[in-house]
Amino acid sequence: MTPLPAPADYSEKIPNNVDLHEDRRLQRALESWQPNFLTWWESMGPTLPTEDVYLRTAVNVGREGWAHFGHVAMRDYRWGIFLAERDRDRRIAFGQHRGEPVWQKVPGEYRADLRRLIVIQGDTEPASVEQQRNLGATAPSLYDMRNLFQVNVEEGRHLWAMVYLLHAYFGREGREEAEELLHRNSGSEESPRILGAFNEETPDWLSFFMFTYFTDRDGKYQLGTLKESAFDPLSRTCEFMLKEESHHMFVGTTGVDRVVERTAQLMLEHDTDDVGGLGGIPLNVIQKYLNFHYSVSLDLFGSETSTNVANYFTAGLKGRWSEERRRDDHRLTDDSIMVDAVVDGRIGQTEVSALVGLNSDLRREYIRDCQNGVNRWNRILEEAGLPQRLRLPHTAFNRRVGAFSGIEVTPEGEVLPAEEWERRKGAWLPTDVDKTHVRSLMRPVHERGKIAAWIAPPRQGINGKPFDYDYVHLA
């Protein structure tokens, strides 16, 4: 009989479903970290003063009824520690330990690698809060403001998830790494975030929607590989994080939907492609933002070949997306894969061991998923009777990591000399003029039921509430 999902214990200072009260030393360590977290939130979190926000808070880890909705002062949000229910029969699904029981403690030989994986994942969570901290002041509606703040508090909870693992399983080194997660800051010259995309600006709402569509989607795939981990507490943590991550991608998907819909309306009403002077965002500018965020997110998957990732897989630390649905031996020692490469100065492919090419395998899953959103946005244009279409640029476009980092390529895949790239890149990536125009539209609309002119209203509100619900009470 499957046990019922564990409810969160909200009587504790730190809500949790891991029986934190039974380990007083761990509880004290996390309670001493908590004030530092709140100091970070006050100094690096959302800058717009609010009384309270209509937020969802996790109350258990089951598939149904796992969240409670209500107005909460953000500083008082009950960030907590939640692991999906433990499957006591779970076995390792891949690598050299395939078929063995999963680990409840960290094997000594994998300690450093597991800690590194957890730190990198943990570092992305507060980074995105820092990148988005000023957006509340220019929210196009209270509905959108609420969605921004929901994303922010859940990224804060995902930080808690990784910090719990560091404290609970990695001793003094883990505690030190947990402190460092609050000391690095997005865009800092002295102490930047670990991954490049998390040091980029998110200065406007089009950037935010593209970030939550493309970069949070990378997060989905990274969490999906860690969910396969033989280290069961990490697997269970990531399984629950994926529940919350889906809302972040929903915000991005539907946000871009609504920008494209409004642009299409203005194009039809005024019979022009140039809607910039009409208070809209032209399709070619939307395409440039798409190009940038997609290419930066592709870099997050790392190089096309990686012995580190091969070793993680073989050890059982990090699997593939949907590992158990794969129809192979789940060890890959004799398999090969074609990966992207530059061959004689041209874009091509080369054959490598499947283990070494796991980054490419994951990136391809991601690219297929990204295409679904572009198809969705193009249906909006098609239904409006417009011939224009958005598209994903070539995988070699604007790459700074991996095989294509040393060449310059058009969105269509044509290799260019560096001088020509410099001359033409403004046609494909946001220019200062484009960014200035988009930012000029970011005038706040903080009145119930009202929305900025550059974006269409949502089809429905949150949790059955209407669009004109009082989602946020401003201070």
TrEMBL record:
SUPFAM superfamilies xref list: Ferritin-like (SSF47240)
UniProt xrefs under NCBIfam families: benzo_boxB
Gene3D superfamilies: Ribonucleotide Reductase, subunit A
GO terms for MF: oxidoreductase activity
Organism: Planotetraspora kaengkrachanensis
InterPro entries, A to Z: Aromatic_CoA_ox/epox, Benzoyl_CoA_Oase_BoxB, Ferritin-like_SF, RNR-like
Any one GO CC term of the record: cytosol
Top-rank taxon, per record: Bacteria
BP GO terms, sorted: phenylacetate catabolic process
Protein name as it appears in the record: Benzoyl-CoA oxygenase subunit B
